[in-house]
Amino acid sequence: YEVYRGTSPGGEKVKIGDSGVKTGYTDSTAGSSGTFYYTVRAQNSQGFGPQSNEVAPPVVALPPPETACTAPGLTKLTDASGDGIIAGSDLKSLQIAQPYQTTGVNWLTFTINTDPGQAVQPLGSAWFVSMKKVNGATTTYKGVRMVWNGATPTFESYTPSPNSSGTVDGRFVAAGSQKPAASGSYAPPYDKIVITVNAADLGLSDGSLINGFVSGVSQPANPTNTGANASTLYDQMPNSLAYTGGYTVDSQACRPNTPPTAAMSAVPTSGTAPLLVSFDGSASTDSDTATPADTIASYTFDFGDGTSSGAQSSPSVSHTYATGGSYTASLTVTDSRGAVSTNSAQATIAAAPPQPDLDVTNLVPSNNQAKQGDKITFTATIKNVGQGSADVSNTEFILDGTTVLGTPNTSSLAPGSETLVSVQWQTTSRTPKGNHKVVATADINKAVAESDEGNNAMEITIFLQGNKTR
Length: 470
What we know:
- The structure is a single chain.
- This protein has no helices and 37 strands.
- It has about 475 residues and is mostly beta strands.
- It has four domains: about 1-50, no CATH class; about 75-250, Immunoglobulin-like, CATH 2.60.40; about 265-350, Immunoglobulins (Immunoglobulin-like, Sandwich), CATH 2.60.40.10; about 360-470, Immunoglobulin-like (Sandwich), CATH 2.60.40.10.
- The strands form ten sheets. A six-stranded antiparallel β-sheet has the order 13-10-9-8-17-18, with no helix packed on it. It has a five-stranded antiparallel β-sheet with strand order 5-6-7-15-14, with no helix packed on it. Strands 21-27-26-23-24 form a five-stranded mixed β-sheet, with no helix packed on it.
- The chain is elongated, with a radius of gyration of 45 Å.
């Protein structure tokens, strides 16, 4: 059979599956809301027949996935219905749960599901679960049961003893091995036996493996004689009484895991790019302090500029912001059991754009032997020693502190680049002999915002005597 689905009457265009030769089909892909329409087409050796009539069954939510963390827990055994003898003896399934306990005690809860039973069961009858444990060459058995020794049931753990053939199926109890269960219930409609025991009473601890289960309902032929040949089975799971399934005791598997809390500091949070910032997440915490306490296993710093540290074990890291801008850095931490922080741990980093720095790195005259009346050329080397580009500016040459020889344009300069600018001084016969000071100052008009405004000038002294300059 082919099954087709649509979202409107007559719109069954999507083939969603084949049921094979089965006459039933469960659609688990339709979604949880809306109305869905279905038709079916059959196939035999001659080909496909016409599509069937249309149906629009109600959408039924899928059951939540089973978990050992919440009773009734994980299904370990199942049995077909209709093979019980007395009311409540038709076994349907066995489930086991181990909810987390803050006390550190491993409580195991066993649920035996049956058909509806009766308030009082026959004297001596018992609903039991037997467990097999294999440790190397040694196999041992433990069990839990509800037994009727009177008008009310007793819930207990016990050690099963062999039957007449020498095998252990859980029906028979080793004398003196019984221990009261922590709790037990058998309530209307009497279709569920719930037994909670301390795992230690079953010889189990963290990491212990149960290698198989069987379950049954037994009735002694004579309640006062419960020897190996004195019990009848009303029903059993599995029917073969072969131990099947398994479970590992783990007190931490269902332990709640509260997300850790990230905390981050950054120093500095402002400055000029390239800006080196140190981040520290060592103040991050985890509130799950019960033994064994959770710890912060990894730190992931997102620097807000498209890069991150990746997951790292160290709580600190440094990062350089190469360009100017405002960046929101954040920290995410993961604890030792995999929970990830959800809180906001952020710092805003304000990185000013990289600034240029114009410096006069050299200043030379053109002629050290000039005569009075000659023309002298002064050439200055202007270099951008900063990290940012410098726009066009002017360089001033001033003689003896008062006479401006010129303010030539200085071209734009990329970081690390330099250029030459020059002016000329036309001396005359009246030019005083002796020392003369020439100062070249870059960016005289402060047109360029520099990282250091105090290194823009260079001074030289020339000596004019007669017709020579030295």
